[in-house]
Amino acid sequence: MRLISKGKMESMGSMEKLRFVLDGVKSGNIVVLEGGLTSEEQMKLIELTMIEVSEDFPGIEISGYPSKRGFFNTRRKTRLTVIGPANTIKTIEKSKDLISTLISSN
CATH topology for 2-103? Predict the structure, then answer.
């Protein structure tokens, strides 16, 4: 499991951040991001994942806490995001302040 600080994520560009996350998940890690990803970054991560899905890499499971609404009722980054291999992690419950996840070995 990799726990990534908000400061580490903010020090990277968007594509560098997504590559860092995807490489971590592809190596079998569950990645927990303190600062989360923007909705655009989440969409791009899913897009990159779909390109790389193979027999050895089944894809990702992603879940996060959304941030509170920002100025003009817009959403900012998620507060926390959990990302893992689709065959290892399964979100079983999600509410505004709780994510319950089942983690299994392959």
Answer: 3.30.950
